[in-house]
Design brief:
With about 290 residues, this protein is mostly helical. It has one domain. Helices cover about 80% and strands about 0% of the residues. The chain contains twelve helices and no strands. Helix 2 crosses helix 9. The longest helix has 29 residues.
Length: about 290
């Protein structure tokens, strides 16, 4: 793996790991839809002027439809689902559930792209989904927790789908254009809903600060880096950032929110990461397990 790719993955892991902390604090005050509307609007306000200044609107012509699709599947819907999950799930647990993205990426590749899975990949999928079950089972005791887990897992499916859509429909488009167009599209989708969902009690300055950090660092900067990774190394490599997100997510949650995950969550997380490693590993030699 190239050094720049490794650096980008670590920085992305830190940024997106922090996003679960920010959502955990800000979502109860804003509500899921308003929080994510603020997040993507901040990102669009940062990115769109830069695109207009350097390239104008020309790069967006002809790809508005794919950008809107990627904006919905990679941002507007999954961000909102994770913000909903943050109302009841600890930040660390949400970040660990997010680690299942490469598993669903492999599944999407099999179902949609007809990619024949090796025996090793099938084993990885089985181990990984076993880990998801271990993670989710203790949280299925109440209706709110059940819905939160379902929302988080639904978001990971959409992330996996969006990575493949990006490569297939926007493979020749500059990463900065994809990031700008998708975040702007997500903002356009969510802003009309804010009028119906804005909280009755104004969010605190702390919640606003986290929302701005979500939009600037965890979205504007992070998505430019992510789409650059997809363009340079492919969706499979880019999705391996989910190895690092739980590490940072659990760390930020423990340091700043005093969260402590139970032993079952740690075991489930290890199973998920082990399954991801098996499902995404490419043997260097022939003759390995298939």
């Amino acid at each position: 793996m190239a050094t720049q790719t490794l650096v980008d993955l670590v920085v992305l892991g830190a940024l997106w790991g922090a996003s679960f902390l920010f959502m955990r604090v800000a979502a109860p005050e804003f509500g899921p839809i308003p929080l994510i509307a603020v997040r993507v609007t901040v990102a669009a306000v940062i990115l769109l002027p830069l695109l207009l200044r350097t390239q104008g609107l020309k790069p967006l012509r002809g790809v508005a439809g794919p950008l809107a699709l990627v904006g919905a599947t990679s941002t507007a819907i999954p961000f909102t689902l994770f913000a909903f999950a943050a109302l009841s799930l600890p930040a660390g647990l949400s970040s660990v559930l997010n680690a299942s993205v490469p598993l669903f990426g492999a599944l999407v590749g099999f179902v949609w792209l007809r990619q024949s899975p090796t025996r090793l990949r099938m084993l990885g999928l089985a181990v990984g989904f076993g880990g998801v079950l271990v993670l989710a089972w203790p949280r299925l005791t109440t209706a709110s927790d059940w819905r939160a887990v379902a929302a988080a897992l639904g978001a990971t499916v959409l992330y996996a789908l969006a990575a493949h859509i990006t490569q297939r429909l926007l493979g020749g488009v500059a990463p900065f254009v994809v990031a700008t167009g998708s975040q702007t599209a997500a903002a356009v989708m969510l802003l009309p809903l804010v009028a119906f969902t804005w909280p009755d009690v104004a969010p605190t300055a702390r919640a606003w600060g986290y929302a701005v950090l979500l939009g600037s660092g965890c979205t504007a900067l992070a998505y430019v880096m992510y789409f650059r990774l997809i363009a340079r190394a492919g969706p499979a490599t880019a999705m391996t950032v989910t190895y690092l997100i739980p590490v940072f997510g659990v760390t930020w949650g423990a340091l700043l929110l005093d969260e402590r995950l139970p032993a079952s969550a740690i075991l489930g997380g290890l199973l998920v990461l082990g399954g991801v490693a098996l499902a995404t590993w490419t043997p260097a030699r022939r003759g390995t397990l298939r």
